[in-house]
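DOMAIN: structural biology
WANTED: fold as tokens
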Amino acid sequence: MKTLGWSSRRLVPHGGHQMSLNIAAGLHLGGNESYPGVFQPFGGFADDIAVEDGYVGLPDIPGVGFEKKAELFTVFRQLH
């Protein structure tokens, strides 16, 4: 689509969980609309990631970062 003058940076998907954030970052999209307080314990971001001026960073661990969401990781341990 670049040849037609369209940039992937114009695409901003939405989703209530941090997987959408990682997908947007990995594909170099324009951002990601999230609902941090919805879809718990899957929703939101890693526990140590702060929202500043409407922006968040990615967790500093490999993968999606589920391990940095204590409540969600507890659910995964119970299921395992």
